Amino acid sequence: MTFIEKHIIELLQEKDERAISLIYDQYAAPLYGVILKITRNEAMASDVLQETLIKVWHKSHVYDPEKAKLFTWLFQIARNTALDALRKSKRKSDKEIQIQNRDVYPNEDGIDKEDRDLINAQINRLDKKYREVLETIFFKGMTHMEAADYLNLPLGTLKTRLRNALKELRTINIGLFIIIVSCLL
User: Fold this and answer.
1) Where are the alpha helices (DSSP H) in 138-173?
2) Which domains does the chain have, with CATH numbers?
3) Which tens digit of pLDDT belongs to each residue from 141-152?
4) Which of 18, 90, 165, 182 has its CA 20 to 30 Å from the CA of residue 41?
């Protein structure tokens, strides 16, 4: 172990902020290189490097020099943070693609205009909070979790409103309810 490594470890254990500066000076370039190789995006790599240093600071009490060299520990945190950022980015882009391509009537021949107008008229008779839930789940094609996030509601509240909306639709027009369900399947 080099003198600078020992010094950085001591500073980390003492929660001295100079440790992060020294880590940055000594290890930022190789860590950035690893992160960039994983993310393949310079902006993301810069953000991940910063997040890595924050994690190092917060997890400094966990580091044990007997288990791993300092760079190995730093490398592992950087690698895991980069992989997490990639997964998060992929989930976000998948969600955006799905939302953009959703359409309740992708095939206009699937439901005729009369039925569509009847469905809209019946749904418009519902309370606004029920209409919003039906529109996000059935017409925008969101999952329950996505709809809850979109409407800024707890998941349980969203499910209760959905159940109540469907009950109310049944009472408004049992025949219409059957049409809606058959169109959505």
Assistant:
1) 144-151, 155-172
2) 3-100 (1.10.1740.10), 108-184 (1.10.10.10)
3) 788 888 899 899
4) 18
